[in-house]
Hints:
Blueprint: H1 2-7, H2 21-51, H3 57-79, H4 86-102, H5 112-122, H6 125-145, H7 152-184, E1 192-193, H8 194-211, E2 215-222, H9 225-232, H10 234-251, E3 257-262, E4 265-271, H11 275-290, E5 302-308, H12 315-331, E6 337-339
Parallel strand pairs: 1-3, 5-6
Antiparallel strand pairs: 2-4, 2-5, 3-4
Helix pairs in contact: 2-3, 2-4, 2-5, 3-4, 4-5, 4-6, 5-6, 5-7, 6-7, 9-10
Amino acid sequence: MRAELFQSDLAAPTDLNPNDILFERRATIYRLMLIMMLVSVGSITLQHLLFAPLTSPTTWVALAGFAALGATLFWLQTRQKIVLPPIFALLFNIGLVLWCIATGDNQQSLWLFPLMIGLAGLIPSGVALAAGSVTVLILIAIQWSVGSLNDVGEIAALLATWALSLAVMRLLTHHADELADLALSDPLTGAYNRRYLQPQAMRNIADYQRYSRLSSMLMIDIDHFKAINDTLGHAQGDRVLKDLVALIENRIRGVDMVFRLGGEEFVILLTEVGAQTATKIAEELRLSIANMSTLPGRRITVSIGVCDVTSVESAEKWLERVDQAMYSAKQQGRNRVNVVMPVSPVDVHISSSLPVWR
């Protein structure tokens, strides 16, 4: 639970990529929940302003919460940044509602229903389970203390709403993740597709420009692949593509990524790797692919272009330069590696400030 709380996308949003599809989906849910929470806190604030003394601490706490939620919604809408993580917004709103119930304002208990749905929709399952359980126990304790535990039906309805929301959100999240995988990956090989390459390349360029973190791109093209399809059939060609991706994924690290551009062309993004190391990896891959036994009696070779991030300014330029390098490898006889000469890295003195986990 500790890992879920402090490492989840929306509970600890200090290192999010707004271009990520999952982030956009969850941010949209958070926007809707923020609107609901603003209405909830706003109604409590208005009621206390009209019918309670201005010196009431509840009034000022509600006013402060309304301002914080409003600022969070504005910042998320305009800057794609999360100022107040969902778990804090939800717990504040739930705590405020419970406090109102404890002080005699029982009609505010209706707000617990959408808030419990928000727990299921925005917070990791383990944390949502714990927070929901604590909320229900506190509600029971409050009703017990004021002698109104006869509202068993309300508590049962709240529990049913919460449990059903958890189940539905887990199911929807599972299906959404499957759809996201389909949208970002190649169904034949399992590699990422071209659509996902651009945002990842942009992020690597930004990391270089901001932190001087090197990264490299490899473009791989299978030599004479059309001849394989024409003579052996497309089933054997598909087998070559799948074995090639499997070999690459076994060689690269978990932080590296392989993409299928289409046909027999692939791109590999190597994180925190300069041109020199990337060239060695490309040579290893070239030799390993040449030794594959996918097609007995037929040798599979590839031409590889290598270009690191130091010589490009945009994702399009990076892809263009590594494509030129790969094309040069083909012109020079195929089954070889061609490298774009790197530029001297940017000299920034920030290494001591980089987080260890990066």
